[in-house]
Amino acid sequence: MARRKEPTARQQRLGAELRKLREAAGLKGREAAALLGTDSAQVSQIEFGTAGVSEERVRRLAAHYACSDVDLVEALAAMASDRTTGWWEEYRGHLPTSFLDLSELEHHAAYRWDVDFLHIPGLLQTEDYARALFSYMNPDFPETELERRVEHRMRRKVIIERPSATPYRTVIHEAALRIMVGSRAAARAQLTRVLELSEADHITVRVIPFGLTGFAGAGSAMVYAGGPVPQLDTVVRDGPHGTVFVDAEAQLGRFRTLFRRVEAVSLEPGRSRDFIERLAKEL
Fold first, then answer.
1. What share of the chain in percent tops pLDDT 70?
2. Which of 82, 119, 165, 219 has the greatest number of CB atoms lying within 10 Å of its CB?
3. pTM, whole model, 2 decimals?
4. Interval 261-276: pLDDT, tens
């Protein structure tokens, strides 16, 4: 199998999970290689995602590693056998790799949670809102680059609009609702769009108002994508040096707790809709 020059985050994740299983079993790379009848360099490439691995090999390795978590093994085998060429591949070479990795992650997610404090979450954004946001953040972009990013963001919404829609829960701070990204008309249209989407059975929108006392969770902004098993969940965060994909078990547990705490102090969905509707009428 040809070596990959640029493995996706999903391919890297599969390799990383296999490495965790090997290390938990107390085996060296050369020992895993002997089990597969290959060399340690091949095992290293598999674990870094630069080389593919078959479903059959995943099962063999899991058996030799004495992994008793059947659900995890099945999920890893499914990842190995997946040959999806998603719509996001049309943008390879035209957009940052992290954009494509996020789209692939969302495509496979069992559920999505968002917490946002400064902007409307991407899955809920209108085209005008996204264009104004990208234009402000990247004022020197040529028109084609700008429109490509807007188009990509709009296409990402397929996961909450398709027939088998992904369950989606989001908590949005009042600041994000009040900041007018673009014109007043665009801001009103954006709030209206959030209200429309919040009526869907699979979408839950909650609001944190400015007046909430004792709230110190503004650092908990996140995108949380649920995997087929909890070990394969992923948190996506935007940092000063780009997008970071978090998958360490301890960190995932921390972000699950943070989301539940933020959700618990937010307004319940009905009151949140009333709150957003009131803000829209003020514009």
1. 99
2. 119
3. 0.93
4. 999 999 999 999 999 9
